[in-house]
Amino acid sequence: MVHSAYDAVELVAGVPGRIEAVASHAGKLLVAASDSEGFLRGSDCSLRIYSSPASSSEGGGEIRRDGPYALERHEQRFWRRPPLAMEVSATRDLLLSLSEWVALHRLPGLETVAVVSNKTKGANVFAWDDRRGLLAVGRQKRLTVFRLDSGREFVEVKEFGVPDILKSMAWCGDNICLGIRREYMIINSMTGALTEVFSSGRIAPPLVVPLHTGELLLGKDNIGVFVDQNGKLIQDGRIIWSDTPASVVIHRPYAVARLPRHVEIRSLRAPNALVQTVVLRDVQKLVQTDNCILAALSNSVHGLLPVPIGAQIVQLTASGEFEEALALCKLLPPEDSNLRAAKESSIHIRYGHFLFDSGSYEEAMEQFSDSHVDITYVLSLYPSIVLPQTHIIGEHDKLLDMHELARESSDATDEMESYSLQLHESDDKSPLEVKKMSHNALVALVKYLQKKRSGIIERATAEVTEEVVSGAVHHSLILSEPYKPKKPNKKRAQTHTSSIAREMATVLDTSLLQALILTGQSSGATELLKGLNYCDLKICEEFLKERSEYMVLLELYRSNEMHREALQLLNQLVEESKSEMENTDFNKKFNPQMIIEYLRPLCRSDPMLVLESSLYVLERNPSETIELFLSENVPADLVNSYLKQHAPNLQSTYLELMLSMSESGINPNLQNELVQLYLSEVLDWYKILKEEGSWTEKIYSPTRKKLISTLESNSGYNTDLLLKRLPQDALFEERAILYGKMNQHLRALSLYVHKLQMPERAVAYCDRVYEEGAQQPSKSNIYFNLLQIYLNPRKAEKEFEQKIIPVASQYPGIHKSSSAKFKGSRTGKKVVEIEGADDIRFSPSGTDSGRSDGDGDDASDGGPIMLNEALELLSQRWDRINGAQALRLLPRDTKLQDLVSFLEPLLRNSSEHLRNYLVIKNLIFRANLQVKDDLYKRRQAVVKIDGNSMCSLCNKRIANSAFAIYPNGQTLVHFVCFRESQQIKAVRGANSLKRR
Q1: Phi first, then psi: what are they for 112, rounded to 5°?
Q2: What is the Cα–Cα distance from 284 to 299, expressed in whole angstroms?
Q3: What distances in angstroms separate CA 210 from CA 91, 123, 175, 213, 251, one per listed residue?
Q4: Which of 218, 242, 508, 831 could form a disulfide with 887, with the two C-beta atoms 3.0–4.6 Å apart?
Q5: Per the UniProt record, which residue ranges are transmembrane (predicted)?
Q6: In 566-584, which positions are buried (b, 16+ CB within 10 angstroms) versus exposed (e)?
Q7: How far apart are CA 135 and CA 114, in angstroms?
Q8: CA-based nearest residue to 35, from 299, 282, 294
């Protein structure tokens, strides 16, 4: 990077004597020069003031380049000795100089303001803080800090001792950086605390240069090191000069060093490249002014006047130094903000094209992003990206200006065309290199579009919101004027005449989706579609179909609410996956579960579409599909009716799974529907077996098992309808279950015992009824009913006919069994009464139970009784049966030995209860005695009343009045007071009850 940053102009020539110091004030040069005679004697030094003819006439305050400066004033013998340093305070119009001591003169008249002769005599270096008016002076091994008080005199603030003689110093905040022989130190101006920084170079003396940021540049031979105010090194902060500099001044954005053979100018930005070399030999001093740098030779003064920033930017841009050109753009004056923005944008665009052509795609995208160029401009670099047809009219003026500036030295269109040729020409590059280049370029495009997306989507969303609000306001205005006469139809003015933001969002999202797919980021494309997006449906659909990106295509359909198309595609993919079993990846990717997951969010918004699309998965994954219906609360009646119409073979499957998976069960209509389906299938199966002659009640098909299980575990079905459909000569177990649901237990037990000949089932039936009715006082009657059926079948049949048949005449499936006469005998001998069985009346539960026959009743003649089953029931369920009633029902010839297993535990249990009752009675009696004894003891309490005993209620002496004592044995009250207090409590209690 070499360009002309400064123009060297000779300002003053032929100064008599030797120039010792130089400064500038109000556009004039102040030159301290030893007179020719004084120079020989080594003493007096004069001050010469030079001015430009143009500046004196116009009153300018800057060093000008038009014409040589002429001597305006000459103050002879201004100093007795040549000044070691001279500095101008422009804000205070003061001239500070260090000769024999520090002196302060007023400008422009040069009146002496203050002389610090005591503490500064013999000093060799000073540092001036113009903002705070602080002066640090180094003399021998002492450092003294002064403050300018009221602009008239210096007041000493602090004085510190230093390790060695000071060679250089500079203020850095509250600290002062000191250059002492071969090292640098930081001293705090308030406390005097010293901190070592590092050693200086071996050749050159220490050099401390302050920067405008408060940092420091410390010299170390030919290297300048950047440190902060505390002396800490700044990373990558160093300048390497071509030689050891004698002095360095900072003039943003450059550092200017005085070298033996020339003046070297380097950039302050890393890597601190060489900017310019000005050939000026034997330069004695370099002084920074507001607008230039003064270079003092032995008897002449040159000015390094900066080249205008705009000209430097043009030079750097033309030479390809884009970063330096951008850094200089920041130095343009604030009033030229438009020019600055245009130049920066132009440089960013050209820099972006340069980087893009060089293969640095991500860096190129950063430059395009910083240029604020339209995204369509960047997308034009990618011919593989298909853009939607839009009418985007960008910010024309701004874009045209930027494009014109971008074409000042080269045409951007040519660069784009050259890049396209570079991509598609296979002669120069191999296909692998072209593919890699294209992939890297697309990856950079993805990052660029993602960076731009948030702002563009936000603007598009705001535009949509504004249109919705405007439309709502317009609609409300129409509704508020219902009686306004109609006018001829006119096209209503649109609140948004264009949709630039939405079209730009469409371009961006469509391009981003394609770039993500082309770079293999399918997951990123899916995430893009899951959120708010403006992808062009037609372009993206064709693009995804060409590349078989079905997962992304499904998400595209979903985001556009094209659920029917998505489900059709998904069914097709699942079928293809099933047919191509060798492609394991494809099988893992598409399966029926995906259809279920897709349908899940649609269950509430579009249940009919869910039902239409669920037939495929209902056949293959019925449990998952039913779980979907249940978890998403799809109306069960709707599902059932749809399946009944379109897939009747799946209706029972749905109802079964729903019944098994639903904790609260299903509604009675659906329960009845399921039972009717089971019954229809069982009846068809029964007819087939009956025709074949192989029907028995002990045969169970899977459907019949389901029917029986459903009848037993549920009660929401219609028993009347089911009984009408049952055949008269079969399916007795189902009939018994239905009778049980109707609380017609006698009929149910009769069917289990006589029709099905399964006594164990009858006992299990009684156990279930007993446990379900455990809270009812007549819970044991169910077993008595069974005993009646066992021991008195004629009476049971008679009660069956008298009490059930008239009620059941409405059921044609119920028929009378052939009457049989049973003969039997009844024991006339009474058995020991058990459990208080005498005079116990029996009140049977249910609708079909009757009273037991008395002791004189005889069983009907003929017909076998089931004595063994009755005895077994008594022995197993002795604790659930009324013993006295059971004994009355047994035949008279029943052997007592057969009743041992029934009577023994019954008597044992009765005796045990009796003993327990006696124990409890004795315990209660003992507790009663203890209470009486305690009461007696408490009634023997002695209360002593003397002349000092007081009533706790009225606080008067009790004396000889009647008294009462509270249960605690200590509180004494007048009996009258006690009675009144009780009456008051009673009245309050009555009032509180009235309020309630």
Answers
A1: -75, 125
A2: 10
A3: 19, 21, 12, 8, 11
A4: 831
A5: none
A6: bbebbbebbeebeeeeeee
A7: 13
A8: 299
923 pLDDT higher than 90:
yes
CA distance 512 to 382: 12
Distance CA 963, CA 779 (A): 60
| CA 229 – CA 240 distance, rounded (Å) | 21
> In angstroms, rounded to a whole number, what is the distance separating the alpha carbons of residues 376 and 399?
11
pTM, 2 dp: 0.58
How far is residue 914's CA from residue 930's CA, in Å, rounded to a whole number? 24
From residue 705, alpha-carbon distances to 154, 672, 678 in Å are 115, 16, 9
Q: Are 159 and 145 in contact (CB under 8 A)?
A: yes
For residue 281, the cross-strand partners are none
* C-beta of residue 726 within 8 angstroms of C-beta of residue 739: no
Q: How far is Cα 892 from Cα 580, in angstroms, rounded to an integer?
A: 81
Ranges of beta strands (E only) in 748-852 are none
Distance CA 625, CA 613 (A): 11
- For residues 15 and 301, is the Cβ–Cβ distance under 8 A? yes
Taking the CA atoms of 756, 758, 759 and 760 in sequence, report the sign of the dihedral they define.
negative
pLDDT greater than 90 at residue 446: yes
Contacts of 426 (CB under 8 A, 6+ apart): 434
pLDDT confidence of residue 896: 77
DSSP of 902-933: HHHHHHHHHHHHHHHHHHHHHHHHHHHHHHHH
First-last CA distance in the chain: 100
The first and second tokens of residue 926, run together, are 């003992």
State yes or no: cis peptide before 806, omega within 30 of 0: no
Q: Is 971 helix (H, G, I), strand (E, B) or coil?
A: coil
What residue has token string 């203050």?
A: 114
Distances in Å between the Cα of 719 and the Cα atoms of 670, 739, 877 are 14, 9, 30
SS (H, E, C) 85-151: EEEEECCCCEEEEECCCEEEEECCCCEEEEEECCCCCCCCEEEEECCCCEEEEEECCEEEEEEEECC
Q: What is the pLDDT of residues 687-709, one digit of tens each?
A: 888 888 888 888 888 888 888 88
The answer to whether residues 773 and 873 touch, using CB atoms and an 8 Å cutoff, is: no
pLDDT higher than 60, residue 475: no
Give me the long-range contacts of 51-58 (CB less than 8 A, separation at least 24): 51/27, 52/27, 55/27, 55/28
State phi, psi for 621 to the nearest 5 degrees: -130, 70
CA distances from 831 to 80, 825, 882, 911 (A): 154, 16, 13, 17
d(CA 114, CA 370): 54
Which whole-number Å values give the CA distances from 615 to 329, 558, 650, 656, in the listed order?
Answer: 68, 20, 9, 16
